[in-house]
Every structure is written in structure tokens, then in C-alpha cells.
Amino acid sequence: MKKYFVTILLALVALTGWAQVNSTTALLGSWSGKLNAGAMSLTLVLHLEQADGYVKVSLDSPDQGAKGIPTFKEYLSDDSVAIKVESINMTYRARLKEGKLDGTFAQNGFSTPLVLTKGVPEVNRPQTPKEPFPYKTEEVMFSNKKDNATLAGTLTWPVGYDKNSKQKPTVVLMVTGSGQQNRDEELMNHKPFLVIADFLARHGIATLRYDDRATGASVGGEVKNATTDDFARDAAAGLEYLRNKKAFSKVGILGHSEGGLIAFMLATKKGGSRTFDNLVKGYPDFIVSLAGPGVKGDTLLVAQSNRILSLSGMPANMTVEKYRKQDAVQQMPWLKWFVDYDPSADIAATRCPVFALNGDHDCQVISTQNLTAIERLLPKSKKNLVKEYPGLNHLFQHSSTGLVTEYAQIEETISPEVLSDIANWINNLK
């Protein structure tokens, strides 16, 4: 749930071309600082790069996952800079003073001082695995022929795996959340799927994580008009690929956010909305739903909007009717499909073991709303586990508020307790 619904100060814009300005050298490099905007504090990074006799100027907002936003030059000299991003009505004007860019940031009538210092903030991600690894990995490809999509991924074998052994490992297909993401589900320098795959490999469980269609090394497949239904066919192809290898004792799905929704879609028996019988022989043997939706899309998005508005110090006055009247709902096929989709039938028709988990600081998939619905709808089984984690956000990081703007500021990629619980639950399945 990252693609469309984050309330941010700087819109994620896609402008064409770089700004070209008169050549200068004094301000070349990267400059960074904190923008204080009421309840939010955002890191901004200004880049000035020499190229072909000109200086290219761009802006990053790493706390929002925005990089390389092109800017238009109003003025640039050896000691002063003035830029604007017209599409979001933003300007920044500053003068070099005591080694710092001392200036003013303005947007839509809002104005605040913004001081930038030379350099880029160091990002520490202590959980990101580093080579050499005590396990083997294999680069693989599989195809969703119906959508003409070829998916590229990494198959990670568990520590001590012996292909000649009669004992076959369990494998987990990992499905990312909304928006085009790489196989590590990389966001703001965090790589949660890489961290999960590494942990599971060290605890006897294989994984397959893949780049979303038309992302990274994956090619083909419609993206602009694609919906969750289309992305589910990609995951179905991955499930079929793992089944056909005949190298695993169990094949399960771990899905985050929209990926959790897809996991339930692929697991539905009679009574659900399953449309993948021609693609998949059989069903997943188990599901791990990380912050997966449990209620209808419009209901989820309204609760999400109101939680973010409230935490940002604004009136939480969004309603389903108001949300549906937004232009984006009609203009974005993915969003139009999502607001109408109700996962209730698919969850109720799921017969394999399910581990559904969520954090109570999650601002995007509200745990009290969605986790409660999943627990109510799931068929009763001693193998099922539904768990809410105090203080964890949508990425399962320990957080203060759960707002998206905290993601990049938190060094932790994913709670160690969550990693242990996932591995233990899978290994205890009989």
C-alpha cells in the first residue's frame, strides 16, 4: 500500500529532462538539511552536478522515497541558488553563508527557513545482509504467459541444503506490496524481503523473491492499466514454477500489504473469487500475510486517510463518498479496481494454514480494522495464527507514530520478533 495513498508535502513528480543552468563550480556537490513542516520533519537533499559545461540540479526527499526530482533554475551563482518545481508550486532560494546554504523553502503559501549543509546524510541499515552468505542463491526466471511477463528473481536455498538429500525444504514465494518494486521490496534504503530471505535461509527455509513485472530484471507485462488481479497472475506463475521444480516439501506464500491480498486470492477454495485454476496446479500450502487487507478497498483507504490526517494534525474527515469522488479513483485502473474489491469471500474460502500479522502503529493497513476482519473471516484452525504487534508500523519497524515519513529515519528494517515468529510458525507446520 505504498503507491498512491501517502499524504506528503512533496509530490512524487515525474518531470522530463534536467534543468540546465550556467556553469559554476562553487556550489557543486550535494547539500542536505531538515525541513520542519508542522507535525512533519523531512530530509531534503539538493544535488548540483557538472555535465557538458552545465550544472544539473535535482532534489531528493529520501524520507518519502523520492529521488532525482528535476528542478528549474531561477538563479545560480558562486554563492546563491534559486530553484523551483513548477508542478508542485515549490521554490527554494538560498545564499552561501558561513559554509551553509541559508535559505527559504516555499510551497502553496507555506514558507519556512531551510538551511542545507554540504554532504548527504549517512544511512545505516544494520540488518541488511552482507556477503559472504552461508547459503546458496540461484538467479531464476519464470513466465506469466497470459500477460507476456517474464519475472526474474532469486531463489535462496537454506543453510546446509543438499540437493541429493531425500529431505526437501519448505519454500516461500514472496509477493511485494503495491507499486512496482524490486525483489528486495526496496524502499528508502530498506530491503525487507532480502532481510526476511536471509533470516529464513538461516532457519532452514527456502525463498523465491522476484522483481515486479517491468521492474529490475523482469520484462514485459502491462503496468499502466494493470490491477491487483493482473499482479496475482504473476504470483500464480511463481507458485507454479516452484511446484514444477519438485524440490520442495511445501510451497507457501508470504505477501506484504497488497501481496497479502494476493496470497488470499491464490489460496481460495470453492466460494472465493478464484480465477487462477488454469495457471496453478493446486494451492499454496500456507500463507503469511504481512499487513494484508481484510476489508473492502474503499473502507480501508478511508481509514488510512483519516489515520494519516489525524497524526498530521489535520481534521480526519474523509468518507467513502468523498474518497470515491476523487479523480484518481476513475483515472487510475489499479485504484478503481482496488476500491471495489472486497477480500471477505477469499479469506473465508481459505483452507490452508494462515499466519496473519500486523502492527498497531500501521497507518496504511489499520490493524484494528483489517486484522480483526481476517480473524473473524478465517475458518477455524489450530494452525492459524493472528497476531498484532505493539509499536510496529506498516514495514514492521518499531516506530513512534507509524507515519511514512519515519520509515527512512528508522535504522531497523524489520522487527527481530517478527522474523523469529515467521520462521518458527513455518517450521512448526506439520
Structure in words:
A hairpin with a 2-residue loop joins strand 8 and strand 9 (100-107). The radius of gyration is 23 Å and the shape is globular. The longest helix has 18 residues, at 228-245. The chain is built from 10 helices and 19 strands. Helix 2 (228-245) packs across helix 3. It has helices spanning 192-201, 228-245, 258-267, 297-311, 320-324, 327-331, 333-340, 344-348, 367-377, 416-427, and strands spanning 19-21, 29-37, 40-51, 54-61, 66-70, 72-76, 80-85, 90-97, 100-107, 110-118, 137-144, 149-156, 170-175, 205-210, 219-220, 250-256, 287-290, 354-359, 385-389. The model is unreliable at 2-21 (pLDDT under 50).
Salient structural properties:
23% helix, 10 helices, ten-stranded antiparallel β-sheet, single chain, 19 strands, 430 residues, nine-stranded mixed β-sheet, disordered N terminus, globular, alpha+beta
The number of helical segments is: 10
Give start-end ranges of low-pLDDT stretches. 2-21
User: What Rg is obtained from the alpha carbons, in whole angstroms?
Assistant: 23 Å
What is the β-strand count?
Answer: 19
Query: Main beta sheet, described?
Result: 10 strands, antiparallel
Tell me the β content: 25-35%
What is the terminal-to-terminal distance?
32 Å
Question: What is the H/E string?
Answer: EEEEEEEEEEEEEHEEHEHEHHHHHEHEH
- Quaternary structure: single chain
Helix content: 10-25%
What form results from the Cα inertia axes?
Answer: globular
Average pLDDT, rounded to a whole number, is: 90
